[in-house]
Amino acid sequence: MKKVKYIFVSGGVISGLGKGITTASLSAILKSKGYQVTAVKVDMYLNVDAGTIRPQEHGEVFVTDDGIETDQDLGHYERFLDISLTRANYITTGQVYQEVIRKERSFEYDGEDVEAIPHVTDEIIRRIKEAGEKTQAEIVIVEFGGTVGEYQNSLFFEASRIMKMRSPEDVLQVHVAYMPVPPNLGEMKTKPVQQSVRMLNSMGIQPDFIVGRSEYPMDERRKERIALFCNVFKEDVISNPDVPSIYEVPLVLSEQNMGEKILKKLGLGVGGKDLSPWKKLIKTVKTSKKEVKVAVVGKYFATGDFQLEDVYVSVIEALKHAAWANERKPKLYWVDSEKVEKEGPEKLAEVDAVVVPGGFGSRGIEGIIKAIKFARESDLPYLGLCYGMQLATVEFARHACGLSEANTTEVSPKTPHPVIHIMPEQEKLLVGKEYGGTMRLGVYPCKILKGTVVYNAYNQDKIKERHRHRYEFNNAYRSEMEVKGMVFSGTSLNDRLVEIVELKDHPFFVGTQFHPEFKSRPLRPHPLFVSFIKAAVIRK
Ligand code: GLN
User: Fold this and answer.
1) How far is CA 270 from the centre of its chain?
2) Of 383, 387, 515, which is best to mutate to test ligand 1, by the most ligand atoms within 8 angstroms of its C-beta?
3) Structural domains of the chain sorted by starting position, each given as residue range(s) with its CATH number in brackets
4) Is the CB of 363 under 6 A from ligand 1?
5) What is the pTM of this model?
6) Residue 470 beta carbon below 6 angstroms from any ligand 1 atom
7) What is the model's pLDDT at position 301?
């Protein structure tokens, strides 16, 4: 059996560097060279998964096929690698400690004094190796959350040091650090990188590659300085400047032969490379000049003075993929649903299509319902994702079926018309306060009714999509709403759960109980998003 190789990617100087995109791009490059690659995200918080973290705090919760609620970086990995990852690809401090404490309580340490090193580090290493085994990877890329020098992630660094010590030829360290260009100096500074490498050195880690993230490309002089002070070869200092599209990053890194250099150091054959699909995509991105305008109506945008698009990153990326597939330049507008609640939806007349992504709770939902009504009545293409599907049925019940007090019981537990209600299994869980990882999660099959808008999009009568919800459509209202023109075009195989709704007399009005955005890839755009954007283009 071939030995598995491991590449650790750490960050320095600031967070929000684009370390996830760098990791994902590196994975894509190595995959393009014919290797089986997987990517693992390590998060330092004590949460067992990302499911219980507030969206404004954490960004999107990405869901895998096998139903773990993870960090949005797994979404980037899936999009760049074009593979489906598993729960083994996501490791948190919470999972690690949970297992170590479980073992201690069941006397699996045989009376030993259980310590952070080696017991916690061993559990980290076990999980990293397991991720490689489960996905049959030849190369496992592990990204550390946070930056070097934080107390909270130091045990993960320590685990990587131990792995390299045990098997130096199989482990590489890549450090991604920020190189500022202070406006008053107008010059790129390398000192912060030097210091963050010193910090790594003090933990016993010497990087093999240093990737300089910056607004600008790095010149030869900076590369020389970093090489000199950080103890790396100049050719292993890689420039990773801002580029207009994240999907260009594999090309940027590959131009500097980063893939070849990595494989050589790992003792693997360098092989050819085929990045032509990425080149073709970037060409489309650059040559698609005609715009398609899409409003994303959501509630998690505002954080203080900042707008947070991170919460909907998979939706945003899926819209971009679909726009490019239609040779259109995506122009996305973030519309705060609380604003629509106060100011009305009329401004939406300026866009070509409306999306309502997933969400929870009651804040802003009346604004969302106004936006949906507007889209329905003005034949504006509409795509509702999870909450966006549920609220579309609420809107339809209220304004097309005359059930003016219709609602979801999530918002109004005592509504006389609970068109969306909690799934019975879910109710029990909530009574027992079992919140973590207990929603209806991961992939489920769905059958599709022939002759519908979604059938035309998928061109299949059975699909599999990913879910994350506790509530569902109430079948008591099915026939009543059908009579008024709602089509239940997708259901679970036993017909019990409504998974997709659409409208008969509308160019494109679709709501899905699942999240198709999680399965859209730049090189394989999601058919439902592609049809949605097509409808927007036709309307234009
Ligand atoms: N809040 C809704 C539910 O739990 C929708 C969830 C979502 O949009 N992901 O069913």
Assistant:
1) 30
2) 387
3) 5-271 (3.40.50.300), 290-539 (3.40.50.880)
4) no
5) 0.94
6) yes
7) 65
Nearest to 93 by CA among 127, 66, 135, 65: 127
Nearest CA to ligand 1 atom 5: 387
Render the burial of 327-365: b for 16+ CB within 10 Å, e for the rest: ebbbebebbbbbbbbeeebeebeebbbbbbbbbbeeebb
Q: Across the strands, what pairs with 178?
A: 213
* C-beta separation of 448 from 460 below 8 A: yes
Instruction: Please report, as a single letter, which amino acid is at residue 131.
Output: A
**What is the predicted pLDDT for the residue at 424?**
84
Helix axes 121-134, 93-105, angle to 10 degrees: 110
Alpha carbon 452 to its chain centroid, in Å, reads: 29
Residue 206 to residues 138, 177, 196, 236, Cα–Cα distance (Å) = 23, 14, 11, 13
Alpha-helical (H) ranges within 400-526 are 424-431, 453-458, 478-483
Tokens of 458: 């998928």
Q: Is the CB of 157 under 6 A from ligand 1?
A: no
Backbone angles phi, psi at 486, to 5 degrees: -90, 135
Q: What pLDDT sits at residue 1?
A: 60
Nearest residue (by CA) to ligand 1, atom 7, is: 358
Residues of the chain with pLDDT under 70: 1, 301-308
